[in-house]
TrEMBL record:
One of its GO terms (molecular function) is 3-isopropylmalate dehydrogenase activity. Its cofactor is Mn(2+); Mg(2+). The gene is leuB. It comes from Flavihumibacter petaseus NBRC 106054. It holds the Pfam family Iso_dh. This is 3-isopropylmalate dehydrogenase. Homodimer.
Length: 371
């Protein structure tokens, strides 16, 4: 297998977690004799500092000419704290998603029994939690017209959806459900929003083409509660752009940390893989961020290439680190390992240098001290 991968490190913890994901892809390439060619491109605050633009043309060009994109995170407090900033890192990411027509953002939520203690939920509620959020990514309130009045006293963000934008992601959600527990839950606000009523109408009609899949509906306020109250009821959650953004961060609490959740963004051709978290600036450069969301995004990239055995090897290695207590500070604030150490361990496991049967006490590693 020979593939070109564009890597966008981004800002804050983006570079350090993405480097671990690249490390794992290199280890997989060496183990399976694949040829992955990595090409680095700029986006976000880093790109603004270096080029003046949050998404230079060369980055779009590189992404269009690659088989997949591996991305870390963008964002910087200097923009977060300046509502008047004219150019923002986030504009780069939104433009990239739109330019590549990455209309479906797939965010799996996995429960790891070894991380049970981190969730505020009782074990009985969490056991067997396994859902995937299909978040529409190139429409809705993120992309509608924005206005600010001349006197700065009024602003608006328009939420727009066309039926075809809804139908194309609905098909992907139903197809995914067919290979899972055959249930789609549409999350909307159809009691208030016209766009949500269009979603209900369109998704109901598409659902008739998938009679083997159960379709149900939840208002987003209720869905936010149900995620905590009874998360096992969810299989495929289908929703619009902003609801999906919010609900997926909430769902990461079921897994144990925001640093654990990966994602794949797909659409008309392109494919981008990124953890769902942001640039978490307080941790930048400290080697303490959890790299597993980025590494599991690399596993989704391998699945996209059809390398399913390699992808499942990465997931098993991730599970092995968690079960053996090789975890970052967000998981265990006292006995934690560095971001780069976790990356090296997983790279060794996927190359069979450390057998999965080997337990933590037999591995000598330099554990972190208080930072
Ligand atoms: N896709 C993206 O690039 C993306 C996603 C979300 C936020 N952002 C940007 O990131 C910046 C910071 O936003 P925020 O603070 O709301 O969200 P964030 O995801 O960066 O961090 C929120 C909290 O989650 C935890 N966290 C996140 N990632 C972690 C990791 N890998 N390991 C351990 N803990 C982790 C930390 O406790 C952190 O304080 C903003 O500029 C925002 O716009 C970018
Ligand atoms: C940074 C921001 C634009 C982005 C989003 O809202 O899509 C982020 O929160 C995400 O989840 O990828
Ligand atoms: Mg988000």
């Amino acid at each position: 297998m020979e593939k070109n991968i564009t890597v966008i490190l981004g800002d804050g913890i983006g570079p350090e977690v993405t480097r671990q994901a690249v490390k794992i892809l290199e280890a997989i390439a060496s183990h399976y004799h694949y040829h992955f060619h990595f090409r680095y491109a700029l986006m976000g605050a880093d790109a603004i500092d270096k080029t003046g633009s949050p998404l230079p043309d060369e980055t779009i060009e590189a992404c269009l000419n690659s088989d997949a994109i591996l991305f870390g995170a963008i964002g910087h407090p200097k923009y977060d704290n300046d509502p008047a900033a004219k150019v923002r890192p986030e504009q780069g990411l939104l433009k990239l998603r739109k330019s590549l027509q990455l209309f479906a953002n797939i965010r799996p939520v996995t429960h790891y029994p070894s991380l049970q203690h981190l969730s505020p939920l009782k074990a009985a509620l969490l056991e067997g939690v396994d859902m995937v959020i299909y978040r529409e990514l190139t429409g809705g309130i993120y992309f509608g017209e924005k206005t600010i009045s001349e006197d700065g006293q009024q602003a608006s963000d328009n939420c727009v959806y066309s039926i075809s934008e809804i139908e194309r992601i609905a098909h992907l959600a139903f197809q995914a459900a067919r290979n899972r527990r055959k249930k789609v839950t549409l999350v909307d606000k159809a009691n208030v929003l016209e766009t949500s009523r269009l979603w209900r109408k369109a998704v109901k009609a598409i659902g008739e083409q998938y009679p083997d899949v159960t379709l149900d509906f939840l208002f987003v306020d209720n869905a936010a509660m149900q995620l905590i109250l009874n998360p096992r009821q969810f299989d495929v959650v289908l929703t619009e752009n902003m609801f999906g953004d919010i609900l997926s961060d909430e769902a990461s609490v079921l897994a144990g940390s925001l640093g654990l959740l990966p994602s794949a963004s797909v659409g008309n051709g392109g494919a981008l893989f990124e953890p769902i978290h942001g640039s978490y600036h307080d941790a930048a450069g400290k080697d303490i961020a959890n790299p597993l969301g980025a590494i599991l995004s690399a596993a989704m990239l391998l699945d996209h290439f059809g390398a399913h055995e390699a992808a499942s090897k990465v997931r098993m290695a991730v599970q092995w680190t968690l079960e053996n207590g090789f975890v970052t500070k967000d998981i265990d604030p006292v006995n934690f390992y560095f971001t780069s150490t976790i990356g090296e361990l997983i790279a060794d496991v996927v190359q069979d240098k450390i057998p999965l049967e080997l337990h933590a006490e037999n591995i000598r590693l330099r554990k972190s001290t208080i930072i």
